[in-house]
Every structure is written in C-alpha cells, then in structure tokens.
Amino acid sequence: MVAYRRGLTRQRSYSVRRQAFYFQWLACQGRQMATFRQESVMKPLDNVFHELHKNGLLILANVSGAGGAKVVESLGATAIATSSAGMAWAHGYADGNQLPLTRLAASVESMTRILHVPLTVDIEAGYSDDLQHVARVVEAVVASGAVGINIEDGAAPPEVLVRKIEVAREVANKHGVNLFINARSDVYLKSLVPASQRLDEIIRRAALYAQAGANGIFAAGMVTPAEISTLCNTSTLPVNLLARDGLSAPEELQRLGVRRLSAGSSIAEFLYGAMEGLARSFIERGQLDTQALKGFTYGKLNGLMAERG
C-alpha cells in the first residue's frame, strides 16, 4: 500500500483509469490509508486547525486546486480552504454537488501532497442526501489528507444536515481524525426565512449542528454588525463569515467575535475573468498584455510546485 501511494504521489496528474483505481482502492482500504496519513501529517494538523479557530481571525483565501493552494501557502497562510465552485469549474463541472468523487479525492490528494499547513475541503451538501454516500465522501477526503470540511444545509430542513454531521463525525472518529466540521447555514445567503426571522433561525440551527458534532457555524450572507455580534455571543461555535460587499473590515469582525473569514468563490471568479480578458485580447489582436496581472514568473511558480509537503 505504501509503495503504491509513493508511486501515486510522484505523479502530477491522474488519468481517468488511474482515478477510478485510486477511488476503488480508497473505498476498500480507507482505514489503512487513514492510518498511514495519521502517522505522517494528519494527526498534528487536525489539532493545529482547531487551534486556529480559538483566537484572532482565521482568513481563508479559498483555492481551486494544488497550484493555487501552494501559491496561497507561500504567502504565509496558516491554513488552506477549497472553493467547491472553483474545484468544480477546474474539472469542467457546474457548482452544485456535480463533481465526481473520484475527481474530488484526487484533487484533495494533490493538495495535501505539497502542503505543510492544514487543508479544509468544501464538500457542498455532501454531494448527496444518501447518508452512505455522504460517509464515502467524508472518508475519501479524510483519507486523502484533509483535516476539515465545510458541509451545507441549503434549502433542506436542518435535520438533514444534522444527520450528515453525525455521519461525518462517526467516519472521522473511526479513522482517529479530529475533523473540523464547519456547518454552513444558508439562512441568510438564500433567504430561507423572512428577514425578521433569520437571526433566530440561524441561532437555532447553530445549536442543532453543534449538538450533532459540528465545530463551526458558517453564516454565509450575514453582514449586519449587530446580528453578527449576537450570533457570536450566543452560539457555542466559532463563527465563519463570507467576504462580500457590505461586510465590516476584518478588524471590526474580530472585535465582534468572528473567528473565520472566507473568500468563497470570489478569487476563482476573478481568475477566470482575468483569463477571459487576456484570451480575448490574444485571440482578437494576437497580443498578450500581462504586465498588470502577472505576479509570478514561470520559474517562480514552477519552483513552488516542485516543493513537497
């Protein structure tokens, strides 16, 4: 198994056939794989990631793959988070529980292979309401080296996410991983209830998710300082917010009690926008004007990728 893994990690990409074999092997050998990861990096990194939520404000510049993860780490990031949308787009899938598990697992593996810091993975709604499938997703990302997950409720009743959190915790415990489960509630982001009821509803959901085994509450879409302060002072869970227009400055968020700030898909959206502009200019005029955007030389970026976690 170790020999196989070493051979696997030396490769920069996976063919479809090898991805399928990797997942088949992962499903059959999840426990052994998790044990191997614990002995190397996972056991300390899971605890490190929990510690990062206890004081100050953890800022996560969400990435779409290994290259971006390494760049963000090189800037001094203490942890790396994925964007589910960015990862889906990078593989040619729409966001919204569409990314195949084989590709997700391979992407996570490619990131943990080169990172020195904790990695948390957005698994959307667990890619299914089938609890057995949710368990397979969690097992795959944990076995691939992740020490945290985001999992969301969406428009489903909160009891659905409660059951998914319980399953995720059971899987993590089975593999001896102190998994940080960040429960995203879409009460604000998707206006699930009238505005006057949102604060009470997200407080209620945070309590349900905490009881189920969650370690954090992601109040995506919440921007009002008074509501943020109330949630932080009421919930037993560290509060995570999504960076967006109208949100207070990081210093103010920290004063209010926020412990985590995420970029979401914004960085991926900007990168695709920049690529579109450069590509259009090149297609139309045959000229590349990259001076305003290019922050890395080929050599610097390639050198980063040559480093191993």
Characteristic key phrases:
309 residues; alpha/beta; TIM Barrel; eight-stranded parallel beta sheet; 13 helices; 52% helix; 9% strand; globular; disordered N terminus; ICL/PEPM; catalytic activity; Pyrv/PenolPyrv_kinase-like_dom; metal-binding
Just name the CATH architecture: Alpha-Beta Barrel
In the CATH hierarchy, the third-tier topology is known as: TIM Barrel
Structural class: alpha/beta
Order of helices and strands: HHHEHEHHEHEHEHEHEHEHH
Number of domains: 1
Give the strand line-up of the largest sheet: 1-8-7-6-5-4-3-2
Indicate the mean pLDDT: 87
The N- to C-terminal Cα distance equals 20 Å
GO molecular function: catalytic activity; metal ion binding
Organism: Pseudomonas amygdali pv. tabaci (Pseudomonas syringae pv. tabaci)
InterPro entries: ICL/PEPM, Pyrv/PenolPyrv_kinase-like_dom, Pyrv_kinase-like_dom_sf
Pfam family, one: PEP_mutase
Provide a concise account of the structure shown.
The protein has a single domain, classed as TIM Barrel. It has 13 helices and 8 strands. By secondary structure, the chain is an alpha/beta fold.
Question: Can you walk me through this structure?
Answer:
- By secondary structure, the protein is α/β, with parallel strands linked by helices.
- It has a single domain (2-276), classed as Phosphoenolpyruvate-binding domains (TIM Barrel, Alpha-Beta Barrel), CATH 3.20.20.
- It has helices at residues 2-9, 16-28, 30-51, 66-74, 84-90, 101-112, 131-143, 158-174, 198-212, 225-234, 250-256, 266-285, 298-306; strands at residues 58-60, 80-81, 119-122, 148-152, 180-184, 216-218, 239-242, 260-262.
- The chain has an 8-stranded parallel β-sheet.
- The longest helix is centred in the N-terminal third of the chain and has 22 residues, at 30-51.
- The protein is globular, with a radius of gyration of 19 Å.
- It starts with a helix and ends with a helix.
- The relative contact order is 0.12.
- Residues 1-25 and 29-43 have low confidence and may be disordered.
